[in-house]
């Protein structure tokens, strides 16, 4: 397990969730235990407050999340997509790792059960527009509508009510193409905009092995950060199991993002992996 001070959770043989509220930065922790002692695991949970972190990811912005050396955040864009998500979710579950999925609204409406399954597994669901349009190319009102419609679709699927106010205020621009006006509006709405710190370039066709090597090279250069992947890509789904093993074997730690605020305490729902036994997550 993890916590901010590096201690271990107490355990009574059941899943334990401990939320530690830390002001403003809102670094909070949810203890998670895993049935596999040799799994990578989720080392800690970081509650992201958009007012403190309105834009993160050094590929696009000057600021990124407060990650320590060897801490990574896994993010997957463009889903849901049933065939690949089955593999991606299986790989994440096998290692007891939680990720953030930036979903597109239209496929989310087409596959609502898959969206709910991903949420029920404890992953975080962020927003990635309605149709994956390039918002920089659209008139401002149409771009805003793309954002709102995407959020509404996912809110409808997850919470039964369409709303342009996201329960999880995390958004990523398709192609990372934003405009100053759209960025300002999202900040005013309290929605954090996610870039990435590095990526796998999985939009380029390559073998899973080539992609693994490329991603590892970038990981070793950056040593930490928000990683952008696409759950819609076959090569990424195929690469994920060996990549997670690499993280485990090289002492990387996976940080799970949740929104700061009242929802953080409830974010433990869905994190139960069934019968659990005590397991130390802290590896250095
Ligand atoms: Zn995308």
What does this structure look like?
This protein has 284 residues and is of the alpha/beta class. The protein contains 8 helices and 10 strands. The strands form 2 sheets. Strands 1, 3, 4, 5, 8, 9 and 10 form a 7-stranded parallel sheet that branches. A 3-stranded parallel sheet has the order 2-7-6. Helix 1 links the parallel strand 3 and strand 4. The longest helix is centred in the middle third of the chain and has 20 residues. The radius of gyration is 18 Å and the shape is globular. The structure holds zinc ion (ZN). The site of zinc ion has 5 residues, from loops.
Write the layout of secondary structure elements.
Elements: E1 42-48, E2 55-56, E3 71-77, H1 82-94, E4 100-103, H2 105-110, H3 112-120, E5 124-127, H4 140-159, E6 170-171, H5 180-188, E7 192-194, E8 198-199, H6 208-222, E9 225-230, H7 234-249, E10 253-259, H8 262-266
Helix pairs in contact: 1-7, 6-7
This protein binds zinc ion.
Zinc ion (ZN) binds next to loops.
Q: What distinguishing features does this structure have?
A:
284 residues, alpha/beta, TIM Barrel, 8 helices, globular, disordered C terminus, binds zinc ion
């Amino acid at each position: 397990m993890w916590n901010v001070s590096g201690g271990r959770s107490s355990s009574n043989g059941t899943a334990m969730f401990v939320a530690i509220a830390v002001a403003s930065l809102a670094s909070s922790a949810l203890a998670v235990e895993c049935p596999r002692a040799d799994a990578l695991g989720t080392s800690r949970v970081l509650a992201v407050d958009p007012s403190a972190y309105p834009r993160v990811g050094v590929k696009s912005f000057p600021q990124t999340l407060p990650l320590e050396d060897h801490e990574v955040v896994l993010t997957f864009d463009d889903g849901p997509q049933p065939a690949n998500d089955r593999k991606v979710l299986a790989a994440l579950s096998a290692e007891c790792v939680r990720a953030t999925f930036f979903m597109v609204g239209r496929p989310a409406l087409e596959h609502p059960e898959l969206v709910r399954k991903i949420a029920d597994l404890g992953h975080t669901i962020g927003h990635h527009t309605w149709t994956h349009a390039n918002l920089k190319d659209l008139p401002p009102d149409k771009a805003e509508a793309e954002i709102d419609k995407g959020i509404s679709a996912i809110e409808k699927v997850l919470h039964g009510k369409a709303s342009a106010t996201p329960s999880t205020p995390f958004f990523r621009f398709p192609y990372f193409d934003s405009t100053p006006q759209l960025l300002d509006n999202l900040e005013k709405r309290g929605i954090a905009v996610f870039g990435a710190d590095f990526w796998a370039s999985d939009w380029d066709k390559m073998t899973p092995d080539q992609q693994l090597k490329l991603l590892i090279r970038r990981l070793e250069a950056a040593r930490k950060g928000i990683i952008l992947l696409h759950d819609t890509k076959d090569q990424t789904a195929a690469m994920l199991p060996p990549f997670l093993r690499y993280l485990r074997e090289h002492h990387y730690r996976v940080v799970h993002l949740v929104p700061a605020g009242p929802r953080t305490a409830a974010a433990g729902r869905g994190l139960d992996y069934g019968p659990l036994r005590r397991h130390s997550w802290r590896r250095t």
